[in-house]
Fold each of these.
Amino acid sequence: MNGQDFYSVLTLDLGIARTNQMIEMMGGFIYCLNSSSPSMAISVKLNNSANDSIPLSRQYGIIGQFKKFFLTNTAQSGITVNLLISSNFDALRVFEQVASSSVSLLNLAEAVAPTLYNVACASANTEYSQALGGVRKFLIRARTGNLKVCFTSGQSGSTFVSVPAGTTYSEDLIHPTALTLYFQNDTASTVVEIIAWV
């Protein structure tokens, strides 16, 4: 897969357990199109099996350049998942089949009205949160220290996405009814910066 407009759909049988199974495929975007179960469990590492795992769920995407990636999942009988791998995030527009059998376009409308949040985190390794509401996209970073981010209260110390010092974590093409970010930092007296678009 090469060039700006190429993509592939990878269908996986999660009945087969994997531990860092290497997929040699270049790209810049991985999106979980659908799964036969909403509770499927699978994670991915980009470029190096020593990197932190990023959990995938239905209608969840990762933007980041990679030459290969590594898949891990427990054996989940009867469950399949379709992953969309694209060379270029901007080359694709993803549609979703909704319950009413109509087709809705995910976030093709321009995101407007950005909101900034500066969350003071006085204590290290302590969970803080910020409610964002129904947003189209967001970006989060810490002014100092290493950040851990998750979407479930109480899980920022155990099931999280790592945001190393000086980097950011962002999501686009999302349409939650309401979204709250939960996070903690390994440095005391820092500020977590968030920008969210609706």
Note: Residues 7-92 form a domain with the Jelly Rolls fold (CATH 2.60.120).
Amino acid sequence: MYSFFSFDKYSSAKMITLRKEQEKDLESIAMVNDMAFGRKAESKLIDALRNTTEFIPELSVVAVVDGKVIGHILFYPISIIAGKKKHTSLALAPMSVLPAFHKKSIGKLLVIYGLQVAKDIGRKSVIVLGHPSYYPKFGFEPASKWNIKSPFPAPDEAFLAIELEKGSLEKVSGTVIYPKAFDDL
């Protein structure tokens, strides 16, 4: 868990806590995702992934202010397949922040904290399909650098990867295989 103060020039300081999701957060996580994306597909995805044996509770992280969940990020195991070779990585998906908290660095904090938790528990890399101007500031690079391909059409500059351990993707190549639950997105 990580707590800090955030200062907004229009309001007083707010204590923001980043921590692993708890049972009491599930309804709030769904609401945050529904509001952030304007649809229910992401919250349904999170529920489906949460109910699998591969789900890693430490990698479902919430941002909390005044006891209220205002943001959420999920990292979930995926595979990169090339012929008979299989490499395990993580997908960063989805990440959401309540619209009222946009442009306040909540997403940035979730990404930084989530990547650190993933590294701390021994994960070596992360893949994301995301905004090409957003994720590179965290160290993400086009996955094509490692000859890692998306399973669906995606712009090279938006299909990104990061090594949490230097060199962990050096001998990895192939196509990312997402769990079936991602098909509904």
Note: The longest helix spans residues 106-120.
Amino acid sequence: MVLSGLIGYLIGAISFARIVSHLVAPSREVPDVTELTLEGSDKMFRLETISASSVSVQHGSKFGFLTYVLDTIKVVIPVLAIRLLFPEMHYFVITAAAAVISHIWPVYYRFKGGRGLSAIYGTMLVIDWIGMFVASIGGMCISLFVLRSVLWAYLSGPLLLIPWLWFRTHSVAFLAFAIIANIAFTIAMLPEIKQWQKIKREDKWDDYTEVVQLSGMGRGIIKMARKVGVLKPKS
């Protein structure tokens, strides 16, 4: 059990954001903070994670998407391996939780990693691949059509995993994974959420598109938001 968690942590801590960045620009140091000037505002938005989103800013969306895919694959491999080796046990759930945690707080890089979304959905490919689509698509639909919020469309997917995994499996182990993943993801997102709330209070600026669309999933959310009228069509 301890070994399965250790395997998940050590592999999940590999930062493909740093690896891809070094391969694309070997002479450029990977910044700890990426700053954006938000369209329609004079405010700067700080991405305090080193992730697929920061790679998109630094090197373009193509390399950002590559980073996202690699970060997903890196957690699929150990979680799937442990599940196949111990099919009757829930050791792979421990591997999954450890991989998500280490993606956010990697031991190799002074515990500064990504937000955890790619790791969460990567582990779900093994735990319950249907749940990955239910959470991502369901979260987007509820947030856009009911809450009318682009920000929540990005945040709510992992949250839906809690009721989904419980009602689908009635397993305490799966429920614990969903809760742990959400706690870790929320902690990782707190600096950005606080910035967004501050900008919104000070400037009544409620267009989060510049930040959300840094990821491939975010760009899909923005397109859908424009179609359903949550955001104005791009001129």
Note: The first strand starts at residue 34 and ends at 37.
Amino acid sequence: MSTPAEVDLTYTQIDRLFRASIGETADFSGALYEGDFSLTLEQAQRRKHEFIAAKLAIGPGSRVLDLGCGWGGFLMFARQRGASGVGVSLSRGQLAACRRLGLDVHLLDCRELTPETLGTFDAVVSLGAFEHFCSPEDFRAGRQDAVYARLFRTVHALLPPRGRFFLQTMVFGRNMIAPERIDIRARPQSDEHALAVMVAEWPGAWLPSGKEQIVSSAAPMFNLVQASSGRLDYIETIRQWNRRYAAWSVKKVAVLLSLLPSYLTSRRFREAFTAGYSAHTVCFERELLDHYRLVFEKAALTPA
């Protein structure tokens, strides 16, 4: 799993820039357009939150856990629905931002949660955090399935019978290249370079090979209720993010200047954030990456 330092390299590093561009409680994961790209980013993110609430029966009195809660977008939505939301994150920047808004968020490793840690929940959501659970080292050592199975066991213990878990995550797509070909020295905008930029942007993270690996790792603890690809939605989400990042403001100039030391001293920072093009868009368009929304329901385990 990505370490706290690796998570901070991405999320805490860009904390102020993200909030200045996208909003204080913006959701840093793919929105839900369902083919209607006339929607604003906020409308599409709201549609996603409503979709999750409907699938997980989240309403007044529900207790919901958000694994890797980001800047608290879904937790704020849950609060508006009358639900009690609890978030966990490894990013100090996200933790501070959420707590400034009065959200119940904890600096904890998702893998270490037990019913004794924060209690049990009526529903669990994870919007993008699954991408960080398996490290490149875990992948190379053949531990990826075991890493995911451990996470599903953790969530299983936190839910009531037939409780639901909503999981949204990027996965490698049908055109994914051999991992050993990924190279930051490759030609810019080539498959090899675009994937290398993505790896630099999310250090310590390695994606699932596809939806099937996730579903297989969830069994027999969870049954898959629904699955849908959000690849095209994510392309539009990134387009709208990039447009807002590019919008000028005095506040944003100050934030960018604060990142100058990182640019000058960190090669990984330069590789991740100054490629000159949207590597994630390239990867989604070429189907090197895909993106899924998965609704799981807790299964009753038969004693061995």
Note: The first strand starts at residue 63 and ends at 67.
